[in-house]
Amino acid sequence: MPAFGGEDAESYYDEGLTASVKGDVTRAARFFNKAARLDKSFLAARHQLAKCYLRVGNAEQAVAMLRDVVAAKPELIPAKLDLGSALLSLGYPEEARKQFLEVAEKQPSNSRANVGLATVCFQEGNWDGAVTLAQEARVKAGDHFATLYLLGRAARLAGAVPLSSSVLEQADKLLEKTIEMNPEQPEGHFLRGEVAFVLEQFTKAIRYYRAADELAKTGRVYSAWGEFFGRSDIRAKWGLCLQHLGKTDMARELGRRILKEDRKHKIGRALADL
User: Fold this and answer.
1) Matching fold, domains 1-107 and 182-274
2) Does the chain have fewer CB atoms within 10 Å around its N or its C terminus?
3) Half-sphere exposure of 28 (CA within 13 A, CB side)
4) What pTM did the predictor assign?
């Protein structure tokens, strides 16, 4: 029986939300699935179940379920945005662009829609286009982490290194404030590592990844600003930093540790084979 009591769809849904926030995606999916089975018209449960699929890398199933949710309720903006993200995960940028554009036309200042459009360009390798759209997103919706992080990466690849460094430093300051409010959560630490990694500050990045690793729990999948990661992903980026610093033996050992928990982890395998 759900902790919130009652053998009904709402109770299972509430329990799923609690598990999802904690990063226990497997448990969350079980509760959302139960809620959806008890009430086949419960679109919110199906939407959350699709997000669970996306977080664990099952983008195909996420897309199929999100298509059904959006078809049943086209005005459900969060579902359209999640469908766009899932389509990007599968490598379908044009279909993703359609979802983001539809939202941006209705809500011009919607941050996720604008960043989504910039991300489409980024995935297509159109760095200049990604920079332009990310800068437009800043004007329309302000300086959110996702916007700054994407702009920083795109600008660096476009050769605009000063712009990249400037916005990534701003992104890092936002994360610093997030950590002050939630010091025991791994998300902020991991993303600070990601920012430092893009800036090629590998020693600093390792410090942040290690902090995230100490706070993360095995088997959990964490989510923040559209980024999904688990403990193996944290260690994989840590290992890549070691590789960049020329510490090959340490990177290889970390790769072997990753494979003990996740034998299919691609970066873990690459590190172990160094």
Assistant:
1) yes
2) N
3) 25
4) 0.89
